[in-house]
Amino acid sequence: MAWYLPHNLSEMFIKKLLTIILIGISISLTNSFDVVAQEKYKVSEKDYANSDVDMADEMRANGKIYIVVATIVSIISGILVYLIMLDKKVKKLEDLTESIAKEKELQKS
Amino acid sequence: MKQIKGFYWKLITVILLLFTVIGGLLFEVPRLNILNETVRNLYFHVPMWFGMTVILGASVFYSVKYLQNPLSKYDILAVECANVGILFGILGMISGMVWAQFTWGSYWSGDPKQNAAAVGLLIYFAYSILRGLFQDESQRNRISAIYNIFAYATFIPLIFILPRLTDSLHPGNGGNPGFNAYDLDSKLRLVFYPAVIAWIMLGGWIVNVRARLRMAQQKLEDLDIYL
Questions:
Q1: Percentage of residues of chain B with pLDDT beyond 70
Q2: Domain boundaries, chain A
Q3: Distance between the two ends of chain A, CA-based, in angstroms?
Q4: Which of A9, A29, A97, B95 has the greatest number of C-beta atoms within 10 Å?
Q5: The pLDDT value given to residue B212
Q6: What class, spelled out in words, does domain B7-173+192-222 have in CATH?
C-alpha cells in the first residue's frame, strides 16, 4: 500500500492524487468566489409562511396540480420505457455481434 | 434482468427521475418575490447545466484516454458524451430563456452568463463540425480529442468563473440587488440533489446506449459487415 512506501508510489497513484487535489482546489475556489461576490439570501421558515407572495395555492387546493403531475409523469415514463426498449435492442445487437465474431474466429482456425 | 446492462443503476435513475418530477412539483417551496412558483425550475433548469458540465468532463476524460491509448472505443465515448452534453446545454438554454422571460423580463437580456453559455455552446458546435471535416479516421479522432480538451478548458471559466466577476442576473454572480443568491435550505436540497444526480445519470444512460450501439456497429465493420 502506498502510504507507508512513499518512494514506491506508482505514477498512476500520483496522477490520481493530483487530480483529486486539483478538483478540491477548484471547488473551494468557486465557493470563495461566491462569498466575495455577494452575501447570500438565506431561505428561512418565514419565506414558507409569507402569504403576500402569489403562489399556485388554488391549483393545489382544488387538486388540479395532480393532473399536471400525472401528465408529466406519464410523458417521462413513456420516454424512459422507450429508452429501456432501445437499451434492450442494443443488447441484442451486441450479443449478435459477439456471436458473429466468434463464428468468424472459428472459421479462421 | 440480464437483458439490460447495468440494470441497477438504471433502475436508480428511473426512481430518482420520477422522484424529481413528483417531489419537484408537489413539495413545499419557499414563497419568494419575483420567483413565485417558478422556483421549482431549480429542479429542472439547473441540473441541465450540472449534467452538461459533468458529461462534458467525462468527454474530456475519454479524449485524454484516447490520446494515451488510441482505441476507437474511447473516441466513441468522448463523442457521445460531447453530444449529450450539447443536448443538455441546448435544453438548459431553452429552459433558461423561458424562465428569464418571466423573472427578468425578457428571453435574452445579454446577461454575462447567458452570453458566455451561448459562446460555450458555439465552441462545442464547432467541435461537431470539426469532426466532419476529416477523411482520415485516426487524424480526425486525434485532432478532435485535442480540440475537446481545449474546448472544455475554455468553457468552464467562461460559464463558471467569468460571469461571477461581473454583474449578472444569475444568482451567485456579481452584486445584483434585485435577485439575490439564495442559499438553498434543506427542503429545496431534498429535491435538488436527487434531481442533479438523476439528470446526470439519465445523460450517462443515453451516452451508454448510443456508445454501445456505435461500438457494435464498429465491431461489425471490422468483421466486414456493413449495416
A1: 93
A2: 11-35+57-108
A3: 44
A4: A97
A5: 94
A6: mainly alpha
> Average pLDDT in the B32-41 region?
84
Q: Write the pLDDT tens digit of every residue in B177-226.
A: 334 456 677 788 889 999 999 999 999 999 999 999 999 998 888 887 77
Q: Does A68 touch chain B (CB under 8 A)?
A: yes
| Number of neighbours of residue B21 by Cβ within 10 angstroms | 22
> Residue for cell digits 449495416?
B227
Q: Which chain B residues contact residue A97 at CB under 8 A?
A: 216, 219-220, 223
Nearest CA in chain B to A60: B26
B206 contact residues in A (CB cutoff 8 A)? 83
B48-B50-B52-B55 Cα dihedral, nearest 10 degrees: -130
**Domain regions of chain B by residue span:** 7-173+192-222
The answer to whether B39 faces chain A, any CB pair under 8 Å, is no
Report the chain B residue with the minimal C-alpha distance to residue A34. B172
ipTM at complex level: 0.84
For residue A86, the chain B residues in CB contact (below 8 A) are 209
CB contact B68 to A (< 8 Å): no
| Cα distances (Å, whole numbers) of residue B211 to A28, B50, B72 | 34, 21, 11
pLDDT band of residue B139 (cuts 50, 70, 90) is very high
Distance from chain centroid for Cα B94: 13
| Tens-digit pLDDT profile for residues A35-74 | 444 456 777 777 887 777 888 888 888 888 999 999 999 9
Chain A positions in Cβ-Cβ contact with residue B223 (cut-off 8 Å): 97, 100-101, 104
